[in-house]
Amino acid sequence: MLAENNVKPNLVALGDSITFGWHLDDTNGNANPSLKAFPNLVGNGNYNVTKNISDGGWDSTELLAKIGKPENIAALSGADVITLNIGSNDLLGLLLYKPY
Question: How far is CA 47 from CA 39, 42, 50, 83, in A?
């Protein structure tokens, strides 16, 4: 149906600093997700990124808390495609944890 109407599918991105595009765009000041981050590059512009639920330093616990917000539930409900890239900060936390 999307192809018949020539409408771009809605994409919602979930993640951490990689999804956010932390420090990719100096003019952005990290106030908003960078337009140079991979969610905007997926499918060579064939998707409409309707929501980027991510931020620098987030781990899976923080992402899970943000997903539960009503505006994010609504965005996820209307998504045709959802990307998920999380875990780097979780792994770094494990490496930094030194039980002595």
Answer: 9, 7, 9, 12
What domains, with CATH codes, occur in the chain?
2-17+39-96 (3.40.50)
Alpha-carbon Rg for the chain, nearest whole angstrom, is: 15
Q: Quick one: three-class SS letters along 5-52?
A: HCCCCEEEEEECHHHHCCCCCCCCCCCCCCCCCHHHHHHHHCCEEEEE
pLDDT at 87: 79
pTM here? 0.80
Which run of H or E residues covers position 62?
A: helix 60-67
Please name the residue that has the structure tokens 């952005």.
Answer: 28
Closest to 21 measured CA to CA, from 47, 41, 43, 48? 41
